[in-house]
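hey so i finaly got around to running the thing on Response regulator from Celeribacter indicus. pasting the sequence first so u can double check i didnt mess up the copy paste, my clipboard has been acting weird all day
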Amino acid sequence: MTMTDSFESLLAAPTPDRPLLGLTVLLVEDSRFASEAMRLLCLRSGARIRRADSLAAARKHLRVYRPNVVIVDLGLPDGSGAELIGELDAARPRVDVLLGMSGDSGAESLAREAGADGFIGKPISSLGTFQAAVLGALPPEARPRGLRAGAEDRVSPDPIALQDDFVHVADLLTTETGEGMLDYIAQFLSGVARTAGDGEMEDAARRLAGLRQAGLPYGPEIARIAGLVHGRIEPRKVV
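ok and heres what it spat out for the 3d tokens, dont ask me to read them lol
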């Protein structure tokens, strides 16, 4: 080992304050707001992070990039995150840590059945909870000693990222007419609203999903959601 190699290994050694130092994370998540929260959690923990917003983008990343940790949202615009979890679990060599993520607690069983090592429920803002999820899935010999127990630090994503998510939904409501896209909009909005603590929006998204599943008329609910979304996009300034 050269002096440079020795120096770099010391730089990458995890510490109690930054227990994920040296790890690289690929986050597969379509919400900008949720992604910003995960970026801050990784940054505070010492991990490097890259993001893919779809299954296709994630597979493209993985052809040239080998992360230590992959965190996959279960609801993505081009399919279920469980598909990617299954592919990564079967791949050899396998990534060190494979985690599913969703705002629906019932999705944990789906993620684990697909091969995930663990599950992160949305919203996630606790540094200690995030670190424990990643460290708990690492092989025992790779877990650093001295992690602060019960770290209470929390992160607050930039509200601009939330605005971006609402603009994205507004665009979908205007340009997309496919029936399947309505199911995606309901799922996406429900997760964003849960992460943002927006009970009114989450209720509207879940109601749309319920009406769709029951085969009942949902036109008024689409109109309600459109109004709520536009009301949350940068309010017009009063002159």
